Amino acid sequence: MEAAPHPWPALGALLLRDGALTVEQLEEALREKEGSSKRLGEILVDRGFVTPTQVSRVLAEQHELPFVDLVRDPVDPGAAGLLSEELARRYGAIPVSFLADGAVLVAVADPTDVVGSDDRRRAVGAPLRGGGAAA
Fold first, then answer.
1. Quick one: 53 exposed, middle or buried, by C-beta within 10 A (0-12, 13-18, 19+)?
2. What is the pTM of this model?
């Protein structure tokens, strides 16, 4: 993916590109972000400018990951059971399916959060492929 030709963060530029956001809404959210510990996506969702699904789709695209819609896409119960509920909740992750190469596709709420990737991999016992997700 090429760099955004806009002065805004990539998330904002991609949401603008998709018509999900106006320049005014993005600039308002960026003003709120100054001095805040919140991430831009959180602010945009909190203000009702975009949905969590819109943010998740763009984050997955940014990180060149597949997008998993947990409402529409089937989840293999055998895969889902590989990760304990406690770890799934802690890391916002759910194993979705087994891939042909033996890896497991794991949908994650925040593909930028790599803190729990080792815990998830050990618990699942197989190589993982991440995917952005929305419920």
1. middle
2. 0.75
